[in-house]
Amino acid sequence: MTPVSYLRADSVADAVRLGGGESHRLLGGGTNLVDLMRKGVERPATLVDVSGLSTQIEDAADGSVVIGAATRNSAVAAHPLVRTRYPMLARATLAGASAQIRNMATVGGNLLQRTRCLYFADAAGSRCNKRDPGIGCDAQGGFTRYHAILGASAACIATHPSDMAVALVALDARIHLASAAGVRVVPLIDFHRLPGDRPDVETVLAPDELIVAVELPPSDVAARSSYRKVRDRASYAFALVSVAAGLALDGDRIADVRIALGGIAAKPWRALRAEAALRGGPATAAAFARAAEAELADATPVPGNEFKVPLAKRTLAAVLTELSEVQA
Amino acid sequence: MSRVQNVIVGSVRTALGWVPAQWLPGGTPDPLIGRRGEVGRQASRLDGEIKVQGRARFSAEVALEKLCYATLVHGAITRGRITNLDTDAAEAAPGVLLVLTHRNMPRVASPSLISMTDPTATGNSSLPILQDDQVHYNGQVVAAVVAETQEQADHAASLIAIDYVAEAAETRFENAKAGARVIPSLLIERDHLSFGRAERELARAPHQVDNLYRTQWQNHNAIELHALTVAWAGDELTVHDTTQMIAAEAATLAKLFGLKREQVRVLSPFVGGGFGGKGLWDHQVVAIAAARMVGRPLRLQLSREGVYRIIGGRSPTEQRVAIGADKDGRFTALLHDGWSVMPPYGACPEAYTLGTRAAYRARSFEILQRHVDMAVVPNTFMRAPGEAIGTFALESAVDELAHALALDPIELRLRNLPDKHPITGAPFSQHAPAKSWADGAARFGWERRSAAPGTRRDGEWRIGMGCGSGSFPYIRMPGAAVRLTVRRNGTVALACSGQEMGMGTATVLAQ
Predict the structure, then answer these.
(1) Which of A1, A2, A124 sits opposite B76 (nearest CB)?
(2) Of chain A residues 64-123, which have a CB less than 8 A from chain B?
(3) Would you say B201 and B366 are in contact if contact means Cβ atoms under 8 Å apart?
(4) Do B154 and A1 touch (CB under 8 A)?
(5) pLDDT (mean) for B191-214
(6) How far apart are CA B281 and CA B345, in angstroms?
(7) For the whole model, what pTM was predicted?
(8) What is the pLDDT of residues B260-301, one digit of tens each?
(9) ipTM of this predicted structure
(10) Of A275, B132, B243, B360, which is least packed with CB atoms within 10 Å of its CB?
(11) DSSP alpha helices (H): ranges in A20-160?
């Protein structure tokens, strides 16, 4: 491992002042960044530790909940406000990683974690456009079980590995970004970028910005919501496909709905087409299946992950069906 | 693994068939079974206290004066050749004592591959260890660095630059199946068994299942990483290793390093998980050679990634199990064949059909294992080798048949229990599955089972009951050397080499 400088930010202002350099990386729980440094994928000269920033989970006056970016995943999952108002977020968070990792990992770090594409991590032996733009992609034609079926490009078929972020995007979360210029707020749905020809640029975060909080607005679908993760092992495995969904019913009709998919794209995938197809319509298994078809209509699987298209459709329809049967 | 072996084993078995059972070891139940004394009684582990207190010394914790540390460099291509090795930066890095590559590694033979007939043959791979510029699988050791501290060794290892020319390599099981080999024997059994006309029986059976079962690679993943602390004193070699084959490893190391057997001591008081993975691999040979070159005691502990890359695991398999049954569910045909990996430089076939050969009675059998060559670290034995995944396939097929027949799966098994070996006709010395099924069903409340899947719920969980059996071949390995000392004061000391992998060896032996 190459020697690295370590700085600690005691305030947002501190973090903004210390963290802006090209060769700087912000350190939260370190559960992803430190691994990548060991593998030679990340080679920062300086680490700025931001784990001392806000870990508050606050009930704001307008009914939203604001989670400090340094809050540990385990604290999010355990918090009464999260468990009562956004149960799908607690579920999704607990579906991720292991208890030990959740005790270290932070909410800000979770959104900024890198893909677990094996070719991205294999700095010594594989080509990766995310690591070295333009060099090529060895995932194409390789082991693609964990790769994207939506929103991918010729340059990159990697997926975003988060579970928590899938629930957050379904809940219309908004991300607070701080810089020397102040704080701006970006909807999570717009925060991550699809790869296009620049898979190395993963978010709209500017080099001098950091995530300081995640805001959850009041939700009319969160009470009837769930998160289902389909994976190769029942624990400590990334999603092949996951679904976060919430339903608001008005009799047999769908008053409102939120759906997001994980494990299938470079970002937590908000299923806007499926939502549009369902809103105002009947809450029936047939309608859910049609909505799933619509969402996956443009899927572009690669050899080795074709199975994820029907898997995503079926999981999406199954979660919605289950939610529609819950006695509210 | 030859035809000759099949003939020898077959002849011995035929001869043994003429010998009265009570003359043979294991021919009749052990007469001491009913007079066990302390065995079977609860006892606290003798080493429990020192383990809980952290005072048990594992191989990577042995403290030695002037200890230095090694790190391995793993090859980054799958198959090919090293064309350039730049070690200057590593050699100039702080604390570095030695950079070891194929250019300066002493000439060392590869260990003999594990064999059923030579107890000193312990090699998992017959590939040369740092002897040439060839790379045979991704992750193979291509260099090592020795330094004053582990961190210095790790850092220097990252400074080694290697250029390769890659060659075509087969790493896909699906593609490799086309070049599969059939070898005459499987461990000490014949590989191909054909009894009756199983395909024909299957085709005309009123009930049949015919399924493919695929199982994945499984990595050895013991909590304790593979590690050794090595000390040379002249030509006396002491190796503190985490190994599950202590005596055989010592014998093999003596052979490889040109020493007499008594010049090598392998010590392994505690192994933090073995499961078949703690055998002799490349890292011990590299560490021992490096320690001799630097003239100091040396420690090498694999990284977790290193374990995945140079310690073989369980082969993936693709298994076909087909069962033909008459209207009462009695098996008329039992077919079990498939593919698993065993590169030509490996020695451990995944013997997934051994359990099938005696589990059920059938009018006909067709059993065959094919070995697939891939450019991978050679697979090795892993916990319940073969049976763990072979039984899964067989028992899944039996369940499928029970479902198709609308017959209770235990009842189906009971109807097909053999009363003697179903293929050879040899009598069983002990055979208690019928009692096991009865006892298990009674204790488990099997009568509460619903045959329709997915009909019982517990909160958001669907729950159900299922059943399955497992078996493992009884293998009597060549005997160990035991030293018995009768002292003048009337006490007796019994000494034997052995391993403690967490199963309580010392506690049990003292009972």
Answers:
(1) A124
(2) 122
(3) no
(4) yes
(5) 97
(6) 13
(7) 0.90
(8) 999 999 999 999 999 999 999 999 999 999 999 999 999 999
(9) 0.84
(10) B132
(11) 33-38, 73-78, 80-85, 87-95, 99-104, 107-112, 118-121
